[in-house]
């Protein structure tokens, strides 16, 4: 370069913009999950069990909570499901799991919450979709019944609009208005407006009925990445309610993960969004908790939260002669995630730990020095030795067939020493 001088001002460090929403509280016993304002962006998930199967549902709720979900939504669609909710709550409480439960209501929620008051009280939050609480004169009446019960028990409410079940009366009205414009909007833009109008007008109606505005959370779910970004940018400008983000029907595996990450990351970086859910369709045999892992990784990658120690690992190349480092990286990552339900309590701060598992000497020692604890495994043509770095200094060299087991033991020892009560 011809000019070696530094610029007059440093390059700005990227960070998400601050959020400007109200703060809701989702509560069960002493567990208060704040949503919005200066609270952390929260992770939410949903069971896929039949809610009537109370024990099975409670077990899955606990699994999701231990994976990092701070609220868990369950389907409440029948009288039998509503009757099961208090038993699910009781099972969780017996296990010492006080994660708030969110009831997902459609079509008949007004009757279920009225006829099953124990269900209404066992839930910490209600999810109501304005597009399917009734039609015509019944719509506002049935919506109002649910809001009155939420206000009575001081429950949070998510008013969740979905473009797959959009209020057709609002959509028809806006389409009629659009036809009178000199330059009509595109149909998609009218749909955006219908989503936002439905959400905000329903929130204002809920306030007029008596619901605390701080207890209102809004969402406008769509399945397209650019559509979600467009809708939430506009929604955030028109209200200060806490916002729940999620790409509805995101899909399976890679597609669902990538699409959700792309949409949510843009909005979160702009300071939009207070809770998130990654709606993945599980692969056959895949744990439901995978959607919690992805949501947590999105927030951790953006620097908004830390949930589990991060594992840095190289992708492998012609210099790496075996899959040993890949296997070790997965083994360590699985081990750390498996330990977190206990470690969160025993070792405060451990979630911020950084571990490096590298495959050769090119970047291995450097990455290991940047990590709290790291190992550089031998690559092609290198001596059969694996140097271990702890707190930036070379601590030892491992050799032989037991490198993986020895390194895992070193990680566990490091956690106890650095984050234990005597640290």
TrEMBL record:
<dbReference type="InterPro" id="IPR004588">
    <property type="entry name" value="IspG_bac-typ"/>
</dbReference>
<keyword id="KW-0408">Iron</keyword>
<dbReference type="Pfam" id="PF04551">
    <property type="entry name" value="GcpE"/>
</dbReference>
<feature type="domain" description="IspG TIM-barrel">
    <location>
        <begin position="33"/>
        <end position="295"/>
    </location>
</feature>
<dbReference type="GO" id="GO:0046429">
    <property type="term" value="F:4-hydroxy-3-methylbut-2-en-1-yl diphosphate synthase activity (ferredoxin)"/>
</dbReference>
<feature type="binding site">
    <location>
        <position position="317"/>
    </location>
    <ligand>
        <name>[4Fe-4S] cluster</name>
    </ligand>
</feature>
<dbReference type="InterPro" id="IPR058579">
    <property type="entry name" value="IspG_C"/>
</dbReference>
<keyword id="KW-0004">4Fe-4S</keyword>
<protein>
    <recommendedName>
        <fullName>4-hydroxy-3-methylbut-2-en-1-yl diphosphate synthase (flavodoxin)</fullName>
        <ecNumber>1.17.7.3</ecNumber>
    </recommendedName>
</protein>
<dbReference type="InterPro" id="IPR058578">
    <property type="entry name" value="IspG_TIM"/>
</dbReference>
<dbReference type="InterPro" id="IPR016425">
    <property type="entry name" value="IspG_bac"/>
</dbReference>
<comment type="function">
    <text>Converts 2C-methyl-D-erythritol 2,4-cyclodiphosphate (ME-2,4cPP) into 1-hydroxy-2-methyl-2-(E)-butenyl 4-diphosphate.</text>
</comment>
<feature type="binding site">
    <location>
        <position position="360"/>
    </location>
    <ligand>
        <name>[4Fe-4S] cluster</name>
    </ligand>
</feature>
<feature type="binding site">
    <location>
        <position position="367"/>
    </location>
    <ligand>
        <name>[4Fe-4S] cluster</name>
    </ligand>
</feature>
<keyword id="KW-0560">Oxidoreductase</keyword>
<feature type="domain" description="IspG C-terminal">
    <location>
        <begin position="311"/>
        <end position="412"/>
    </location>
</feature>
<keyword id="KW-0414">Isoprene biosynthesis</keyword>
<comment type="similarity">
    <text>Belongs to the IspG family.</text>
</comment>
<keyword id="KW-0411">Iron-sulfur</keyword>
<keyword id="KW-0479">Metal-binding</keyword>
<dbReference type="Pfam" id="PF26540">
    <property type="entry name" value="GcpE_C"/>
</dbReference>
<dbReference type="InterPro" id="IPR011005">
    <property type="entry name" value="Dihydropteroate_synth-like_sf"/>
</dbReference>
<feature type="binding site">
    <location>
        <position position="314"/>
    </location>
    <ligand>
        <name>[4Fe-4S] cluster</name>
    </ligand>
</feature>
<dbReference type="InterPro" id="IPR045854">
    <property type="entry name" value="NO2/SO3_Rdtase_4Fe4S_sf"/>
</dbReference>
<comment type="pathway">
    <text>Isoprenoid biosynthesis; isopentenyl diphosphate biosynthesis via DXP pathway; isopentenyl diphosphate from 1-deoxy-D-xylulose 5-phosphate: step 5/6.</text>
</comment>
């Amino acid at each position: 370069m011809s000019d070696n001088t530094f610029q007059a001002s440093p390059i700005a460090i990227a960070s998400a913009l601050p959020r400007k929403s109200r703060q809701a509280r989702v509560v069960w016993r002493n567990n208060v999950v704040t949503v919005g304002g200066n609270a952390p962006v929260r992770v939410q998930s949903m069971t896929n069990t039949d809610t009537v199967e109370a024990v099975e549902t409670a077990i899955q709720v606990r699994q999701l909570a231990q994976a990092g979900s701070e609220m868990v939504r369950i389907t409440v669609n029948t009288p039998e499901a509503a009757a099961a909710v208090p038993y699910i709550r009781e099972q969780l409480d017996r296990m010492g799991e006080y994660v708030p439960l969110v009831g997902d209501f459609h079509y008949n929620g007004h009757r279920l919450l009225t006829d099953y008051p124990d269900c209404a009280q066992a839930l910490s939050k209600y999810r109501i979709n304005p597009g399917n609480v009734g039609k015509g004169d019944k719509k506002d009446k049935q919506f109002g019944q649910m809001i009155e019960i939420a206000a009575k028990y001081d429950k949070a409410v998510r008013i969740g609009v979905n473009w797959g079940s959009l209020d057709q009366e609002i959509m028809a009205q806006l389409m009629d208005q659009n036809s009178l414009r000199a330059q009509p909007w595109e149909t998609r833009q009218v749909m955006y407006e219908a989503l936002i109008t439905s959400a905000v007008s329903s929130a204002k109606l809920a306030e007029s009925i008596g619901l605390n505005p701080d207890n209102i959370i809004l969402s406008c779910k769509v399945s397209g990445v650019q559509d979600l970004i467009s809708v939430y940018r506009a929604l955030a400008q028109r209200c200060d309610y806490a916002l729940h983000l999620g790409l509805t029907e995101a899909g399976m595996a890679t597609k669902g993960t990538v699409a959700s990450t792309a949409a949510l990351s843009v909005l979160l970086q702009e300071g939009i969004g207070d809770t998130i859910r990654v709606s993945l369709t599980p692969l056959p045999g895949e744990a439901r908790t995978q959607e919690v892992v992805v949501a947590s990784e999105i927030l951790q990658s953006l620097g908004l939260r830390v949930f589990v120690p991060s594992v840095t690992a190289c992708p492998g190349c012609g210099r790496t002669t075996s899959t040993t480092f890949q296997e070790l990286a997965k083994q360590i990552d699985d081990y750390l995630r498996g330990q977190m339900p206990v470690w969160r309590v025993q070792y405060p701060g451990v979630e911020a730990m950084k571990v490096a598992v590298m495959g050769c000497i090119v970047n291995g020692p450097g990455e290991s020095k940047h990590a709290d604890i790291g190992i550089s495994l031998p690559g092609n043509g290198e001596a059969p030795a694996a140097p271990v770095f702890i707190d930036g200094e070379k601590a030892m060299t491992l050799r032989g067939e037991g490198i993986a087991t020895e390194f895992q033991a070193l990680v566990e020892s490091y956690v106890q020493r650095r984050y234990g009560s005597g640290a």
